[in-house]
Amino acid sequence: MKKKIAVFGNGWSNEYLMMVISGIRKCAIEHNVDIFFFMDYSSGEWQDENVKAGEMNIFTLPDLGKFDGVILLANTFHLKAEYEYLINQIFLNHIPAVSLEYELEGIDYLGTDNYSGMFELTEHLLKEHHIRNLLFMSGPKENLESMARKQAVEDAIGKYGLALKTENIIYGDWSYDPAQEALLQWMDKNPQLPDAIICANDVMAMAVCTLLEKKGINVPGQVKVTGYDRLISGIMFSPVLTSVGRNWDDIGYRGIKHLLDRLEGKEVPRHEKIVSKAEIGESCGCKLCRESKKLLRAGHNMGYNQLVDNVLLAGRMCGMAEFMSDVKTPEEFHLRLNEFWSGQYEYGVSELYLCLNEHFFSSLKTGDKLEIKGYSDDSDLICGLRDGKMLERKYFKTNILVPDYDEDSIGSHMYTFLPVYRKKESYGYIVFGNEVPMLFDYSMNTWVSNLELNIERVRQNLKMEDMNRELVRLSLTDALSGLYNRMACEKLAYPFMRECHKAGKNCALLFADINKMKVINDRYGHYQGDLAICTMAEVLKEVLPKDWIILRYGGDEFMASGECGEEAQLEEIKKRITDRLKKKSKALELPYTLKAGVGFWIVREKDELDLADCLKRADEAMYSMKEMQHQEK
Questions:
Q1: How far apart are CA 258 and CA 113, in angstroms?
Q2: What is the DSSP string of 356-421?
Q3: Dist. CA 589–CA 507, nearest whole Å
Q4: Distance CA 422, CA 426 (A)
Q5: Three state DSSP letters for 19-30
Q6: What are the pLDDT digits (tens) for 224-251?
Q7: Rounded Cα–Cα distance for residues 103 and 83 (Å)
Q8: Domain map of the chain by residue range?
């Protein structure tokens, strides 16, 4: 049986994912391991509470007891609750786990030696470019990675008899806008530019370069700038960033190997660091080496292809919105989504599953709230794609995660899971099979967000359709008896008779009228009159075939229409109505015996369907019966 490894990470760190996932996949393929990657797009404690809850919910989807090991891409997490939940689940299930690039107490660690590469880069600036006055832009003040990089800078310049001044340490919070704001504040207080700005990551370095260029300050001519991470965006940037490579693909590979070795009982280091390396670019004043030029060309090609893909993606998202705009039933939603994905979807995806919570649709009628945390026991595969073929809609056990998952299938598989939700309520989740190009840029978040909007639109359509049906029902319903009202003649009864007649079937029009209704109201009061009407309605519903249309025609008059046989069947119905009325009168201890005149007319295939004539004949038959009842009395 194949091993199954659960991986948890955040999609905003897309370039990191591209490299670390490539290493994970390489090792998984070599050892025939299936990877289940649970990914969210949380983005910090400042994020809206509904979004945080909706995104993080995907981490609650898997039962870790069903997995052989766990990899935490913990340096990508933004929420404290993410760490706490996953660590608790790992300990509860006693499952081997390794955290990449972020140290967590009690969890095996595998990551970059943040010190070595940054020391090498700083020394390069000092030796090759004779830097003496430098500014260090840190990540968050208490972040361990940032602190290690700062220490490397301090030690490197200390080797040359220099010191990093406290006022020359600023904090960019790993991000673009905060980095520019921090530099602006520093420049307001310090009119003299530093020789170099060493940034603790590439994102801040690119923000710094952009700001300096806007102010007419040349990089690297006037100020040299360096980063850390060796991002593809940094290689594509102008000037190409001098940075520190972290061997993320190797770390991903070792993460899987670490778990497999532990499962086999081998001795493995519980805390391991991989040496980082300075990667020289243009932003420090150097020329590109042959390898860097090759990476730059590849990066430019990737950027162009990504631009084209995003343009196509925007068009397809508009197309999806148009496809979903007038969906009014769950079945139509399934068919429309199938049609759209099978005809338009072109992202190299061989497997794709949209799994909604089992009561996603039924909750619209019941008014029940959807899950906020967790998922339903069963899921509705509303749309699925496997090997380019669309799948039938079906329900399956959610703990299987992937519909029809085969743990004995040949070869390694990777599945990426993302949450589907709106305003904190969990709608379900989506699964991408194997590597998906959208995983490695921000378009996957855009695509899933667009899908959520379309699902919400469908949900609103379904709500509106139910409300409209209810309004129609109320407009056609008699409030007292609960039967259809007279308006239903034109809307339901007559069309039903036309269809029967067109199909060559006998159809009957039945009329009934409560005897001496005025006497009941005058002698016993209107409460008894209303009770007589309701009792008559109950008898008609009990006696007449279930598919007949029954309505209160007005006052104490009732009408019904439906498919029928010959007269004998209707005579039997008349008798049963009369008998049931007598029994009801006794059971309810009415102060009178409830009676009704009942008449009918059969429209046969060869008859002309003249509704006015049918009504007249049924009415005459009813009054004929009433006369007979009066004579009997």
A1: 18
A2: EETTTTTHHHH-PPPPSSS--SEEEEEEEEETTEEPPPEEEEGGG-STT--TT-SS--EEEEEEEE
A3: 36
A4: 7
A5: HHHHHHHHHHHH
A6: 999 999 988 898 899 999 999 988 999 9
A7: 11
A8: 3-106+293-463, 112-248+268-288, 488-632
**Which CA distances in Å does 154 have to 122, 149, 150, 166, 619?**
9, 9, 6, 11, 104
Whether residue 259 contacts residue 200, with contact meaning beta carbons closer than 8 Å, is answered with: no
Contact yes or no for 225/237 (Cβ under 8 A): no
Cα three-residue angle 454-460-464, rounded to 5 degrees: 145
Query: CA quadruple 338, 342, 347, 351: dihedral positive or negative?
Result: positive
Helices (H) and strands (E) counted in the chain, each on its own, are 19, 22
Structure tokens at 613: 């004539």
Nearest partner of 514 among 494, 528, 493, 504, judged by Cα = 528
3-state secondary structure at position 520: helix
pLDDT tens digit sequence for 414-428: 999 999 998 878 999
CATH T-level topology, domain 488-632: Alpha-Beta Plaits (3.30.70)
Per CATH, the homologous superfamily of domain 112-248+268-288 is Response regulator (3.40.50.2300)
* 351: β partners: 386, 433
351-357 and 378-386 beta bridge pairing = antiparallel
Residue 219 backbone dihedrals phi, psi, to 5 degrees? -115, 120
- pLDDT, one tens digit per residue, over 495-524 is 888 888 888 888 888 889 899 899 999 999
